[in-house]
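Minutes, project check-in

Agenda point 3 was the complex the collaborators sent over. CS summarized: two entities, 740 residues total, and the question is how they sit relative to each other. Sequences were read into the notes so everyone works from the same version.
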Amino acid sequence: MSPHQFDIQLLAIIVAASCAIPGAFLVLRRMSMMTDAISHSILLGIILAFFLVKDLSSPILIIGAAASGVLAISLIEAVNRARLVKKDASIGIVFPFLFSVAVILLSKYARNVHIDTHSVLLGEIAFAPFNRLILSGMDLGPKSAYVMGSILLLNLLFISFFYKELKVSTFDESFASSIGFRPRLIHYLLMAVVSLTCVGAFDAVGSILVIALIVIPPCCAYLLTDSLFRMILLSVVFGISAAVSGFWVANWLDVNIAGSMAFVCGVFFLMVFLLAPQRGLFGIMREKRKQRMDFAEASLLVSLYNQERGESVKNHPDSRSMFRSADFASKVVEFLKQKGEIAVAGGKLFLTEKGRERVRTTVEGR
Amino acid sequence: MLEFAVELFSDYTARTILLGAASLGIVSGVVGSYAVLRKQSLVGDVMSHAALPGIVLAFIIMGVKEQLPIFIGAALSAVLAVFLINLVTSNSRIKTDSAMGMALSVFFGLGLVLLTYAQKMPDANQAGLDKFLFGQAEALVEKDVLIIGVTGLFALLVVGLFWKEFKLLCFDPDFGGTMGFSMKSLDLLVTAVIVSAIVIGLQTVGVVLMSSMLIAPAVAARQWTGGMGSMVILAALIAAVSGVTGVALSAGFENVPTGPAVIVCVSVIAFFSVLFSPNGFFTLRFKDARSRREIKKDYVLKALHDLALEHDDPGYAHSERLLALGSEKGFNVRKSLSQLKAAGYVERAGEENWRLTPSGIRQIRELSPLERSG
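CS then shared the predicted structure for the full assembly.
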C-alpha cells in the first residue's frame, strides 16, 4: 500500500463515518431523500462563496455551502406550505433548480477552476490527498483529512449532546414537544449537520454519491438491530467497510472510486437484505414456510381429532382435499408420520397418542 | 438576440432541435402530471438517475452510440430500480424514502463505474457518452427527433386510451379496484409511460435533471387548474415552452449546458405559479390578511355597538382604550377604527372617543340580526 493509497483510505474512512452518524437519524425520520436535496443544493453555495472569495480552500466555502443546504430545506418547506404542492413534489422542484443554477454558473464562469461539472458528480478522492497541510515545513498529512476530521468530531459532539433529544423527537415528535424539547429546532440542527457533512464529503465522493454513504449503511444496520445506539455503531462499521472495500474494488478495476463505493454499499445492503437473521428475505421466507407447514399440520391433526371424537366431521378427513395441492398434502402427511403423530392403516389416517397430545397442548391450549 | 432567434428558427438543424425539445416537453408535461398526482415525484428522480448504468452498459455491449439500444438499456435499468424498491419495501421494514435513496445512489454509482470503464475502452467512440449526464440538445439529429416523436406518441396514445383508468388510479385506486380494473397493471402501465418519457429526455436534459422536467410543469399547472384535462394540457404547454426556451438559451450563450438551462426555465414558471396562482403562497397570505382585517373590523364594530347598548343609545361614544381592553394583545384597534371610519361606519367624538354612525348601526344589525332587539 503506497502512502497515497493510505491517505485516500484514511479520508474515505473519516468521510464514511461522519456520513453514517446523521444518516441513522435521517433513515429513521424517513427523510432520506432530503439528503438528495441537500447534496445537490450545496453546490450553489460553494460556487457563490467561491465567486466571493476566489479561493477554493477558504472556510467561507464550507459555510456558504452549509448555509445553502439549510436554505434549500427552508425553501422546500415554504413551497410545501402552498396548498396544492405535496411534500415529494416540493423536494422535486427545489433542488434541481438550485443545482441547475449552480451548474450553469459553473460551466459559464468557472471553466478553469478546480471544480468542474465532472468532479461535482464523480468526486475526486484520488486527488484530495495532494493538497497537504504543511506547517513550518512539516508535512502533516492531507488537508481534507483535517477538514473532514473536524466535521466528524462535530457530528460526534452533536449526537452525544443531543442524543436524548434526537431520539425522542425521532420516535415521538409530539411527546418530545410536550416534555419541552423543541423538535423543530432539533430538526434544523440535524439538517445543518447533514449539510455540513455533505459539504465535507462533497470533495471526496461528489454530490450524488454522498447519498449512498448517508442512507445505505444505516439501512443495513436498521435490518440488524432494534437499538438506536447499536444502529449508529453498526452504520459506522458498514460505512467504513464499504468505503474501504469500494476503494480496493475501484483500484482493482481502475474505475471511479466514488461510484465503486456506492456500488459496494449497495452490495452490502443486498447481502443484509437477503441474509439478516430475522429480517432478511431468506429468514422471512423460511419463517413463512415454517408457519405454513405448522398450520397445515395442525389443521390435519385437528380434523382427525374431531373426527375421532365424532364431532363436526362426518367423513374421514381427506388430506388431499384439505390442502391446495396433492403434493403439499402428501408432504404434510409425510412430515407428521415422521414425527410419529399420525399413522396410516388401510389407506386411512389415524392419530397416534403423540398426535392427540399435540392437538391438546398446542391447539386447544390445554 | 432577435437576430439570433430569427437565425435559429430559419436554420434547418435548429428547427430539428427545437422540434425535439418541444415534443419532449409535451410528453414530459403530460406524463409528469401522473407522477405528481400520484405523489411519485421522487420516483421519477430515482428512475432518471437509475437509467445511467443501462445507457453505458448498452454502449459497452453494442460498441456504438446507437439510439435504440441505449433507450432500451436506460428503460430496463430504470424499471429494475423501481422493481428493487418495491421488493425491498414490501419485504422489510425499510421505508420507501430510504429504498429510493439507495436505489438512486447505487444505480448511479454503478453507472459512473461503468462510464469510467467505458472511457478506457481502446477503440471506444464514447466521447458523447457523458453528455447524458447534463444533456446536449445540439447533438440531436433528425433520427433522434424521430425516435423522440415515436416514443412520445406511444406514451400519449397510452395516456389517451387509458384516460379514465389512469384518473381512477390517481384519485381513488380502491374504488377503481372494486370497479374491476386491475390497479396493479395500470400502475405498471403508468410506470412504463413515465420511463418512456424519461428515456426520451436523456439526450436533451440528461439523467441528473430529467426528473424536474416531469415534476415542475405538472406542479405549475396544478396551481392554476383543478381539472385533469386542463392540468395535463397546461403542463404540456409549460414544458414545451420551457424546453424550447431552454434549448434556445443554451445555444445562444456559450458554455451553458442544455439540461440546466431548460430546468431553470421550467422551475421559474413553477415557482411563479406556486407563489402567485390563485391558490399560491402569496395569494393565500393576502387572502388571509384580508379576512383577518375584516374580522377585526367586525369585532370592533360589534364591541362598540354592545357597549353603546348599555346606554340605550346605539350612537353612544366610547374611548379607544376601552375598546382595546376587551381585545387580544397585539390587536391594533386604532387601525381597525380608521378603516371603519373610511367606510363611514364610525366617527370621532372628541379626542379619544368614537361612536357609530347610522350606517354603522345598520351594518352591525345586518351582521348580527338576532341581537337587534338587545
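Noted in discussion: Chain B has a mean pLDDT of 84.
Follow-up: revisit at the next meeting once the mutant set is ready.
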